[in-house]
Amino acid sequence: MAAAAARTARLRTALSEVTLLRHLVGAALGLLLVVLVLSAVDDFRRVQLAEMAYLGIAAGGLTVLTGLNGQLSLGHGALMAFGAYTTALLLPDRDGVPLVVVLLAAVAVTVVVGALVGVAAARLHGPYLAGATLALAVAVPGIALYFKETLGGEQGLRIIVPEAPTWADDATFFVTGQDLTPRGWIAFVAWLTLVVTYFLLANLSRSRVGRRWRAVRDDEVAAQLAGIDLARSRVSAFMVSAAAAGAAGAVLAIAVRLAAPSSFTLNLSLTLLAAVVLGGLGSLTGALTGAALLTFLPQVVTDLGREAGLDDIAAAELAPLVYGVVMVLVILLAPAGLFGTAHRAVVTRRTRRALAARAADGRASTGAPTDGSAGPTDSDPATRDSTTTTREGAQP
Amino acid sequence: MTRRNTRSPRSAGLTGLAGLVATTLVLTACGAGGRDDDGDGDGNGGGASDVGVTEDSVTIGGHFPLTGVAAPGYSEIPTGAKAYFDYVNANGGIHGRKIEYIVKDDGYNPTNTSKVTDELLLQDEIFAMVGGLGTPTHSAVVDQLNAEGVPDLFVSSGSLMWGDDVEARPMTFGWQPDYESEGKIIGQYVAENMPDAKVGLFLQDDDLGEDAEKGVRQFLDEEIVAVERYTSGNTDVGPQIAGLQGAGADLVLSFNTPSYTALAQLVSMKLGYKPKWFVASIGSDPNLVGSLLSQFSEGAIKDGASALEGVMTSEYIPGTDQTDDPWVQLWQKVWDEHGAKGELTNYRIYGMSHAYAFVQALQGVGEDLTREGLVEWLEENGEGLEGPQLAPFRYSADSHMGIAGMRLAEIKGDTTEPLTPVLVTDIGDAEITEDSSGQADDAPPESGIPE
Amino acid sequence: MQQLLNTALGGLTLGAVYAAFALALVLIWRSTRVVNFAQAPMAMVTTFIALVVIDAGYSYWLGFAAALVSGLLLGALLERLVVRHVDGKAEINAVILTLGLFIVLHSLAAVVFGNEYRSFPAPFGIRGFEVGDRTIALTGFGVFTLVAVLVVMGLLVLLFRFTDLGLKMRASAFNAEVARLLGVQVGRMKTLGWALASLVGSLAGLLIAGGSLVHPGYMDSIVVYGFVAAVLGGLDSPAGAVVGGLVLGLSLSFVSGYVGSQLVALAALLILMLVLMLKPGGLFSSTTARRV
Fold first, then answer.
1. Distance of CA B300 to CAs B290, B296, C60, C119, C122, Å?
2. Are C127 and B236 in contact (CB < 8 Å)?
3. Which fold has domain A14-390?
């Protein structure tokens, strides 16, 4: 028995090392791809990609919180505001603080806020948590209005983005033969932040911490019996998620060159939630899929509307209309999200094939795809579905 | 913990992510194919044309809230401008060029403004931004427009930022009178004509209220007994009006948008509060506010316009109520011929007035249209621009501030009666003087297109 | 003194409106265990329907009735066609679904009814009553609002506590399978729950609109404050919703009048957090969290 346990532990360490390596390779490849693509596209696409990056970063954080830990947040847009305002306060002029420091500071401030919110949220469930975070989303912009002197009121704080360092400029020229444009530099910073964030989130969700989050999500009682501190697990998930939101806020502020209260309305929070759900709850790839959809869809729809002869106002309303309809349809037809559904189809096919192979071997297939998670009992319909769609955890 | 958690889906996820990134990025890369590669963005070689200008067209853009809570009202402004540009195009355009006007929705959210401005600059390749609306929204893009040398004309907002610092923002031109000057003119009038008034301020809590208060306080200070601010979006102004009433204010100077004028009137009616009102130009729109108030039941208000009977206001362009003004007649004709659905409103007139000024500049610059040339022309000729504005623009090499002043008036029946001649001033401690340019008396040319 | 009184009375009327909206949320929560974020735009749509009727020259009350009936139908229709499909799925699915409906209804209304401010009439007068030589911030319509909210609350208490139907509705929401075994037509109960909730929501929409301005986004702030009010009271209790609404309305009115209107939302957050820290299930919660 003890030997078996030791073996399991060893296996687990080995596996986790492999995981880390895999994620590292993935991150490096991702970064390479980012550099290649960013240098291949024009400035407008870079702007759009930067937008996709900050939405993706925040959605990645949210998907960890909601998908893995089961806490719903309607207030992540407000958390982004903390990152954005920190950035704005640190970058009032061109000789401001180095970008890395700015990003880290934004993350740090937001983590502190996230911890506060998390402590409160840890006690709340379902609609009560939704209500509290909803109130958070609408309350935060008011702070900037009240402290007009330091936070700039309705007009917000303008941000002077430091120019790209010469090494980046040189490296870009060396690799691509072009000069680095300001927009290219911002897009690069945005995607670098995304890759780093996703790398950290993926590792974290594979780690013991991540397993605890899932255990808490799946069954509180069982998790508690297994010795997991519910509140601590919840607060830690909230802090990690807030960290991502802070980074996203900083990137947004740099991309927009402004931190203003009207950027952080309830709409932003809902957009993030939509991104997470559209792509597939609990999966980082899903979060990125959702972010891509929400970045590119509105413009495409508006342009189509205009081409179809709608006036400007009707065409503009078309974008939210389509995005709402897509949200409803995804929930009705593909509740695992666009990426999740596609992914599940692949897995199912593979499992079937494996089963067929095993049956052909003449072995009894009693061990067919059971899942051993501490998870949900079937008597609890409320959690059953969420866990089947998200059991895989955050896939990088 | 579980077998499935440490098994193959991970690798599927990894490839999934890489695949997704690749697909998105490649797709967007492909999307870039349609662009022409030569020399976008920096055509400042002094040639005959510039970005967004061809033999037979000039492309311009603007950002406005077409969706969301700020859309009611403001979304009408670009429809007015569009109608006037269509009118000009139908009459052959300017120097053979048709004006292509691209309107983008930013939902009054600076993040979106930044996004759609990039779209306008990089994808639609506009020659100039015309009439971009809102202080926080336009703040997000003003530096970028200036850094890239894009003319940023006639910003739809009265913030000082659109003209007080020509060195920092050489391409940006304001349009309407700034809120500070308006505050000054109103403040001086009250100080001279109603010295015993107990003044209350009802302010929108942003640059509008802030700048206006600064202006008013140059002339009134001890007279001000209460300052109440409302946050745009919060429609319950009951506590603010109760505050003004509680402080005993018998003259309320209000700097707010038209819907808040209506809300403030409704609450005052509820509270039985009857001060004298002075509603700044931005919020007075007698027809709009009147029609909003006219609906209320039990005959409390029967006739629309009388809802605002006796309210003092300021005006810097003629509005829909002045049907015999030649400019309003021109706007009516343009709207009848080229307008979308709906009636001619003051928001639409506002958009048309922008458009008129822009067309005049195009006309003036001549066939060789460049961004620099346009800005130079405006700096040299801006003060003499024709148009519906009652006072001249302040454009020069040192200032890009918009219309210099306004006339104070009182709402009587369904129109207004002047209280003062046209008064002009500037920001800071510039004096307030009577306008001698005769700007208020000009009329549009027969064709309706500036010559 | 007058300012204090008027701020309080204004807050009370506003609180009644939040309460009305919170009642709709409580109703839907008790009968289907869903928090309906689309409640506000649904009410906005029915209010616009009333406005169409009134603008066509019919009386206020006909518009009023039209709004309530269309609310009933809209609720039933949405439940049957859309919401039913997420029954028994994860909680977040329903949340996202109603948020999606929120966005759809919003943009549809902007296209159909136009994105502009319009005034909405009110019966019983919109001038404050005169007490002595003072006018106080309580109008005939305000009284009507307060009475309507209390009546609806009473009806809901009666429905859930004393009628067979109410019991069935609660049972369907609480445990659909057991209810089904006991012969309750769970599907119908849920449709009914949505229809009734949407009716109450429409009423809230009319009460908010009365004597004020409407546009497609006019209910947006009510989504937040109505929801906060419902959560304050504990989502299960009609009385809690009313108390929550009134407490919130009063507090926010004072914050707006004496501190600053920018901080209204922040104050709502603080009040909510304070209450939830002391009672995580709201003021009127009867159930306690499961502990090991």
1. 13, 7, 16, 14, 11
2. no
3. ABC transporter involved in vitamin B12 uptake, BtuC (1.10.3470)
